[in-house]
Write a structure and sequence with these properties.
Elements (H helix, E strand, L loop, with lengths): L3 E5 L5 E5 L13 E4 L9 E7 L5 E6 L4 H9 L3 H4 L12 E13 L2 E12 L7 E6 L10 H11 L4 H6 L10 H17 L1 H11 L15 H11 L9 H16 L1
Parallel strand pairs: 5-8
Antiparallel strand pairs: 1-2, 2-4, 3-4, 6-7, 7-8
Helix pairs in contact: 3-8, 5-6
């Protein structure tokens, strides 16, 4: 399946809409072709079939500080380091390699093409697949967390339009709505991760000196960035947004 949209429906099933009509779940007897709404600027046909109440694939994240380190790993990949410990759906501990696909990622004013490895559950009654993403980029994201942090830092000090236009080519300029969406999402994440962020900072640096008075930035993003930079480079080798993403992933894993 090259691309899919998942929509919730009442009852015990969820309808998965496949944009590629030639890919069908042959285990299902029901098949129906429909025409659905606009995706971007084009209209598409889709094949719809009922599936269990879950998405067909998941994305896992594996820590890599930047694109260069991940590309060096891909030269001779050790898939055992990427393999998820168990299937998220059935709990099977055996997952086989299921190929890979190529993604375009914008980072450091350059377009990179990275490989994303996939795994498939060995349980014959499950056979769900999962993709293992490097931690410097998220699912369905084209820009790394470091690029988003640079843009959001500028947008915190000036208008969204100016922040979107000042990103140099070939990465920029961006749409102001994209910058607004990034700002909104990261502000919500900072609200949710507030206590966890400070617990993590104190665990790494118990005697850290908090900036006060005129030395303390008025914007929370700038304040957190200043605190993040005070941590030891040997313990924190990524940017703030990258670190917050890892904290969010660890939080979701611990609560699962």
């Amino acid at each position: 399946m090259l691309c899919s949209l998942t929509e919730g429906f009442p009852g015990d099933c969820r309808m998965t809409i496949c944009i590629v009509p030639t890919i069908i779940d042959r285990r299902r007897k029901r098949r129906e072709t429909v025409r659905f709404g606009r995706l971007g600027l084009c209209f598409c046909k889709a094949t719809v079939f009922p599936c269990p109440y879950s998405i067909m694939s998941l994305s896992y994240s594996i820590p890599f500080p930047n694109v260069e380190s991940y590309l060096r790993f891909c030269e001779a990949p050790n898939l055992d380091l990427l393999r998820p410990p168990s299937c998220e759906f059935c709990g099977c501990t055996t997952l086989h390699s299921h190929g890979c696909y190529v993604r375009n990622v914008w980072a450091e004013e350059k377009l990179w093409r990275i490989r994303v490895f996939r795994f498939r559950c060995a349980n014959s009654d499950c056979k769900h697949t999962c993709s293992v993403l490097p931690s410097f980029v998220g699912r369905y994201e084209r820009f790394t967390w470091d690029v988003q942090e640079v843009v959001c830092t500028k947008a915190d000090e000036q208008s969204l339009e100016e922040a979107a236009k000042r990103l140099p080519a070939p990465v920029g300029p961006l749409c102001a709505r994209t910058v607004w969406r990034w700002m909104k999402r990261w502000q919500e994440d900072m609200d949710k991760l507030d206590s966890q962020f400070w617990q993590y900072v104190i665990s790494l640096h118990p005697t850290i000196r908090m900036p006060r008075g005129r030395n303390r930035p008025t914007q929370r993003l700038r304040y957190w960035q200043q605190i993040w930079m005070e941590l030891s480079p040997s313990k924190v080798n990524v940017g703030l947004f990258h670190g917050l993403y890892r904290l969010r992933q660890s939080q979701s894993t611990s609560t699962a």
